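Recap slide: 6-carboxy-5,6,7,8-tetrahydropterin synthase, sequence and predicted structure.
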Amino acid sequence: MSHRAGRTPGNSDTLELFVDHVTHVDCGVLDPRSGLSGHTWLVDATLTGQRDASGMLFDFGPAKRLLKREIDALIDHRLLVPRLANGIRLDGPLITLTAHDGAGIDYRGPAAGVAIFDAEAIDSTLLERWLTERIAPQLPANIDALTLALREERIDGPHYHYCHGLKSHDGNCQRMGHGHRCRLAIAIDGVDQPEIAQQWADRWQGIFIGQREDWVETDRHGRHHFAYRAEQGDFAFAIDAGRCVILDGPPTVENIADHIAGELRHAHPAQHIAVRAYEGVGKGAVARRG
Ligand SMILES: Nc1nc2c(c(=O)[nH]1)N=C([C@H](O)[C@H](O)COP(=O)(O)OP(=O)(O)OP(=O)(O)O)CN2
């Protein structure tokens, strides 16, 4: 999605500067069809304009810092909410979604934990436009246009997406309801097991991973309620129990990998298990049992 930043581009002296994967965004999305989903989008940026006296469009260092800072501040580690979607209600800090299948999701938390869009649904095209409209005006005057492209990491093997929050994290991971799209790999006795990893990925698509000590109750509609107090404020989430996984410890990627390894160990007690779980793109944890 492209947005003019200021001047009209010239003909022959216009150049493009690109930064692939200037940042990635890990967020949760409320959607009237799927309910809750976790996303990781890589962001590629292209700047169009004229060189200044230094021979540059924009020094890569400050350009990357500005783009990453703004994109991260606007949508990273937030729950993205399409305000105009059927079934969405905003009532102060309480956001409720009644999805098409009747399932209800409640979120309550500080404003910093969400991003609200005047839209019926959220996808990468909408986010590209929304972000460029806000960031392009901050670019230097010799930049005529900004193009941002959001893409998912190419993952050929098993992968899943989930939402969570890490209440003790000193950064934005404390925000309940942010999410990730992740690879998952499992090996038994050193042999890759894509089918087993795929079964886990299928089972875990779109789950919310909570911590047992934050589980408050299961209501009469069969929804688990979670709540915690973090540095940025009080967060609470309610979602169908069938879409929750509850861990004994915080839902870090270490604990997620270890949870899967522990479950597999029951089924394969005499074998060596290795679970390589990712959190978003390019990072994660390996848990080994046996
Ligand atoms: N050892 C661990 N550290 C962190 C975990 C974890 O599970 N184990 N989890 C998180 C957060 O959940 C988070 O979503 C990761 O975000 P962040 O640290 O911001 O990672 P990015 O790749 O997005 O980093 P940038 O600096 O924004 O590029 C945090 N730590």
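Residues 159-220+242-289 form a domain with the Tetrahydropterin Synthase; Chain A fold (CATH 3.30.479.10).
Residues 26, 72, 166, 169, 171, 173, 252-254, 279-280 surround LPXRUNBV (CB under 6 Å).
(End of recap.)
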